[in-house]
Amino acid sequence: MQGLLPAAHEVVLALPLREFLRRYTVFCDDPPVLILDQFEEFFNYQRFKPAFGEFIREFADTVQDRQFGAHFVLSMREDFALELNAFKAVLPGLFDNFYRLEKLHRAAALARSLQGFDFAFENGLLEEVLDDLSRREQAERYGLEAALRGDLLF
User: For the whole prediction, is pTM greater than 0.70?
Assistant: First the structure.
């Protein structure tokens, strides 16, 4: 990254993770919540790099720093969950708090999002609306002909 950013940013990037986050969250009123989405990519691309172990230690130090008070959410595919064993020695309670998202079918997802509102669909209308939206999206992505044939409908 050297030479790609202004000199002041290069200095900040050279800081340990905890200090880097402290500087960038100094003006937060509440403790920050840092979401590391697609965290499995860390293992895919960094596992054999020299800084892999260093990041694991710095991340663990940051998570355990009670003065910093940040909350971390690691989001990753379930088939990569065992990769988190790399943190086992430095974050012993890592697996004490996890949440597994179950697959939501599209109609159920929309119906749940409408719970609590005085709103209901006629029988079959929700599926029809979702099919139409899906066809429109597929037409934009793959062309009108494929979408009209229904080749791509999920």
Answer: no
